[in-house]
Write a structure and sequence with these properties.
By secondary structure, the protein is α+β, with helices and mostly antiparallel strands. It contains ten helices and 17 strands. The longest helix is centred in the first third of the chain and has 13 residues.
């Protein structure tokens, strides 16, 4: 008989083996235990639920989660949801329902859904959408990574703000208060931010603070460089602070495009008002313009990517590329 229950830390090898056999043999979460534990172990808890044959111990389904905070009813994101064919057609739904029983979250946010997972979410009555891809182009004679058929017109805000780099968690806390973090949904606390970005075992992130001239409105962008064939780009991974601060960031992106010689800067996001992004000089990627802004670099693929999300019904609902497991290494460490 199949039962749904939480996974134990002692079952990490079995979960990794499941990923290797039913997801991808050389998936980083199938071969790198240290990275697996960094991503899913909190204290003595493994943030995975399993569907298991209670007689044979065989795993028929897995569902991982990433907790954004440690409130009584935390915000969290789903990750690594996979169910094998079995005699219980509702097993995927049972895995999802168990997560609500186990953590009693305020809400669960899902990113990177395939078409089947999106259909399951619709059975729950959820709506799905896609992260928007906003981008800025460098001043290049020719584009080697992106495919640009149409140079977009931009609505640049001449009133750019002040910007600077952040190098520590203490500096981050000075830039964005916990009160400000709690204004957004999902609420990502300092512990999550420090672990996710400052203590990442593989990626190195850059942090840029932006303020208006009066220093009454501020925010912090989390960015990461990606490279292919010697050409570098800047990926905006997350944003914290007041949405209006985005409109003052045009000078920062101008500086980075020139100083770092990035071919482009892109920003996958959902929830920030378009007017703020346009004032920062960003353009919204669309099918009509014929442009391609590559998202995948491990390995590199010159194609546009749809990142499907479940739409949450909160006034300040925001999701970014860095949420869930979207900004995760694909190539195992050597």
């Amino acid at each position: 008989m199949l039962c749904v229950r939480k996974a134990e830390i002692s079952e990490i090898p079995a979960v990794m083996q499941f990923i290797a056999e039913h997801w991808k043999k050389d998936h980083i979460l199938a071969v790198d235990r240290d990275f697996f534990e960094w991503m899913y172990v909190q204290g003595d808890e493994l943030n995975f639920n399993l569907a298991v044959d209670d007689e044979t111990g065989e795993i028929f389904g897995i569902n991982g989660f990433i907790l954004y905070n440690h409130e009584a009813n935390p915000d969290m994101s789903g990750s690594m949801w996979k169910v094998l064919p079995n005699q219980s057609p509702a097993l995927g739904l049972s895995l999802g329902e168990y997560s609500w029983e186990r953590w009693q979250p305020r809400d669960v946010f899902s990113l990177g859904l395939n078409e089947r997972a999106a259909k399951i979410e619709h059975l729950y009555g959820s709506e799905t959408a896609c992260l928007e891809c906003w981008y800025r182009l460098g001043k290049n004679d020719g584009f080697k990574l992106a495919k640009i058929a149409t140079i977009p017109e931009t609505d640049f805000n001449a009133e750019t703000g002040k910007f600077g780099c952040i190098f520590s968690m203490d500096e981050f806390k000075q830039a964005v208060s916990d009160v400000q973090l709690k204004k957004n949904t999902p609420y990502k606390n300092y512990s999550y931010i420090e672990h996710r970005f400052f203590n990442h075992p593989v990626y190195e992130y850059q942090f840029y603070r932006i303020m208006n001239r009066e220093e009454t409105c501020s925010g912090v962008f989390v960015c990461r460089e990606a490279e292919h064939d010697g050409v570098r780009v800047c990926k905006i991974i997350d944003f914290y602070g007041e949405d209006a601060a985005v409109s003052y960031s045009g000078g920062l992106w101008d500086w980075l495009l020139q100083e770092k010689a990035y071919e482009f800067i892109d920003f996958y996001c959902y929830g920030i008002a378009h007017q703020y992004l346009k004032k920062a000089g960003f353009s919204l990627l669309s099918q009509e313009d014929g442009n391609i802004i590559p998202n995948y670099f491990e390995p590199f693929e010159r194609e546009n990517v749809k990142i499907r999300i479940v739409v949450a019904h909160w006034p300040s609902f925001h999701l970014y590329r860095g949420d869930g497991d979207q900004d995760r290494p694909s190539i195992p460490r050597r």
